[in-house]
Amino acid sequence: xxxxxxxxxxxxxxxxxxxxxxxxxxxxxxxxxxxxxxxxxxxxxxxxxxxxxxxxxxxxxxxxxxxxxxxxxxxxxxxxxxxxxxxxxxxxxxxxxxxxxxxxxxxxxxxxxxxxxxxxxxxxxxxxxxxxxxxxxxxxxxxxxxxxxxxxxxxxxxxxxxxxxxxxxxxxxxxxxxxxxxxxxxxxxxxxxxxxxxxxxxxxxxxxxxxxxxxxxxxxxxxxxxxxxxxxxxxxxxxxxxxxxxxxxxxxxxxxxxxxxxxxxxxxxxxxxxxxxxxxxxxxxxxxxxxxxxxxxxxxxxxxxxxxxxxxxxxxxxxxxxxxxxxxxxxxxxxxxxxxxxxxxxxxxxxxxxxxxxxxxxxxxxxxxxxxxxxxxxxxxxxxxxxxxxxxxxxxxxxxxxxxxxxxxxxxxxxxxxxxxxxxxxxxxxxxxxxxxxxxxxxxxxxxxxxxxxxxxxxxxxxxxxxxxxxxxxxxxxxxxxxxxxxxxxxxxxxxxxxxxxxxxxxxxxxxxxxxxxxxxxxxxxxxxxxxxxxxxxxxxxxxxxxxxxxxxxxxxxxxxxxxxxxxxxxxxxxxxxxxxxxxxxxxxxxxxxxxxxxxxxxxxxxxxxxxxxxxxxxxxxxxxxxxxxxxxxxxxxxxxxxxxxxxxxxxxxxxxxxxxxxxxxxxxxxxxxxxxxxxxxxxxxxxxxxxxxxxxxxxxxxxxxxxxxxxxxxxxxxxxxxxxxxxxxxxxxxxxxxxxxxxxxxxxxxxxxxxxxxxxxxxxxxxxxxxxxxxxxxxxxxxxxxxxxxxxxxxxxxxxxxxxxxxxxxxxxxxxxxxxxxxxxxxxxxxxxxxxxxxxxxxxxxxxxxxxxxxxxxxxxxxxxxxxxxxxxxxxxxxxxxxxxxxxxxxxxxxxxxxxxxxxxxxxxxxxxxxxxxxxxxxxxxxxxxxxxxxxxxxxxxxxxxxxxxxxxxxxxxxxxxxxxxxxxxxxxxxxxxxxxxxxxxxxxxxxxxxxxxxxxxxxxxxxxxxxxxxxxxxxxxxxxxxxxxxxxxxxxxxxxxxxxxxxxxxxxxxxxxxxxxxxxxxxxxxxxxxxxxxxx
Length: 1082
Prior knowledge:
8-stranded mixed sheet
């Protein structure tokens, strides 16, 4: 007969006594407890095998389908823990981390089928907990016995302050418990049999899992808090029916992801930048967002550059070629330049009557045009405060009237400073940091985040080129910066889409052939002038024709300090700006074509001559003024669009200036110009080597097309003069010799074409050049004629889909390498019908290094004249005065390959930083599998390796101790993901969760059933989960890698004088982490 005993579970343990009590076998066990754990079963496996039966009652509702009100949150959470405890309580992490739970679960389920039954109390009435053993007539009771876990048995230490359990032989009091238990066991109203549920739950641990399931378990755990944060207001409300719209059904999967994420961000943060790469269809994504808001009866304004008007017009007009006609979009369209106007008509709208403050959503296309920002608050009540476009947009549209959400579209939102991004984002929070600081889950405010990011960037930019890697920059940027980007930007590159999305429905991108480089001489005439000779002559010019105000007498200067921009842009500043532009432009035009260069020289020559004549006349008559006019026809298309000087004329009285010195300088320039014009006289079209090279290239393309019989060619030049010259020289010949039609588009003049009876509008020409992408059939179903050669300026280098064409020639190399890629992006687009596409670049006839040095010389000679203004997209942008070394490297790269903008940007590429698409994956999955919260921890799946995902193991861990997230550098804290090879080498550490999740998504997302062959191999290797040594050793290595990174960081901080960081929150290792799940890659 056993005696009463007390167990403190330290020196006296319940398990030791239980083993003795059960030793004789054939016992009947009755347990009333809150939970049951497979590890407690494993600890008593041998003894439990001998018992006759086990009846187990869960003392509170567990594994029941609950009909209670949802309000009872406090009840739901413990219930979840009770069910989860099947696979180990929080104090049994150590056991779970040994990864043997599959084998244990299989044995336990088998034992339950044979020996045990489970019921649950379905009322909320309380019950005493105990474990009773009946052996023949003898009974023995342990109480209180709160849960059947290793903690209660005394194997693990829990957090129970008084872990006393009393063991008592059969007395009337304890027999009462048993009697009571037996009666309750029969009560079907209050107790429900859940044996099958328990078995089913345990089976989830050892059945084979689909890789997709493990991917979603990972997302569920990592982003669970995000789900709690989501209110119905923030998620796209499908009740608006926008998913039934034409536009939604035209979107590719990656565009749908973006549209939903944008709506989510607009609702939560009031703004979003969509920075997908060139050619990924940002316009269509934006149209789906517009449709969503229009369905909610919101007013939408699209603000775009004038040259993209036709695109946006098509989608909202009752046109035959409107692909989304039935959606009846009704947004207004105005232009960036309209912000500088107060009256007049624009797109049929009277600007004086436009209610700017009444737009609920504004979509800014090519939003990088606003990246220079500017002052928008007139805090000092400054009477002379004049608003630039940016300030107008902020004050007139965004701050006034109804609350305005802002969606910005740009493939290049950051040039080479983070303030570019800040100036655009500022539009979303009305320039008031407090509006966004509370919404962002960051430790610092938005201004400090950008300040610190810029400091890190500037330091990084000074590193030697070999150390200036993207990884290095990403490491030096603060976690808060990534959180901010994650919150308000969406950016995917073309390579990202190809890697991580199923692109079968999208169709592939065409393959880029290696670029062809041409270096034609200026002319093949003997003794003729060379590119370098001309450059030397240009260097001798002083161009003082553009800076008359430098010659104004000191005493008269005050009369001319006219403030053009409200930003200190005086006549003097404006002129220096024009002079610098003209110096650069002469070089650019020489590089473009002899003809374009000659025309400019003649224009400057005539202008100087007129000015000298005016001075001579003044000497005779004593009266006269000089008109300081603009020279926009000599700027390239990009400069014209952003010219802050356009249309601002000013006059200077010759009496107020030292005209004698000015005339002397003008005459010196006149001589140089006359000499140059004379030397170029002989270079007629037949001796223009560059033009003849183009003729040869076109002929070769027509005779040897690279895709079927596609003869289309797109020729880009920066200048309208060059474009006109090419059209005049080539179009007739192409028609008579080859029977092909040519067209011309420049921003400044009406288009031209050799195709008879075609109205030469911008849109018509593009439609006939690229009939498939522009859906010509719906407008001109009976006309099958096509334009095969299109000569254009950069007025079409952004936002146009011309992927019918497969051959692009840059007749001149734009100084900004990004522009070259944007040009190529017209034909290098998703869904192209061409297998391959070709880029041909015409370089100046000199070594690239000499050419870059030459540019540098022109720029530095004019350096003293740099204009300091933050006016409308000041055309002396960073592209112009920026890092020549950077430009040299990028242009060098472009000689041999076609690069993506994100690969060439020496700056940060915001593509690789956001986590939004994973959250959206999770939301979509939860609709189909709502009970993710019941899934046990520690599960795994096996998936095959590929080029992108090498063999190894990905572990998803949760830290139980808060000390690991140093500097907030782990984006997912308290979750940690580590990817190791089978040899223990770290492939991807916990600080690159985006990269790791991308790989996991790629490996798992569409694999919704287990790979039987791989599972079989894995089970054989691990003896059905009994021998998991290899994987538990790797798990140990994964945790060590996290600790190592932390220690290194602590030591760095300590050495840098950051006090108190060194090992303050020590991680001891395995027991501080809980394994959520893992993925084995074979």
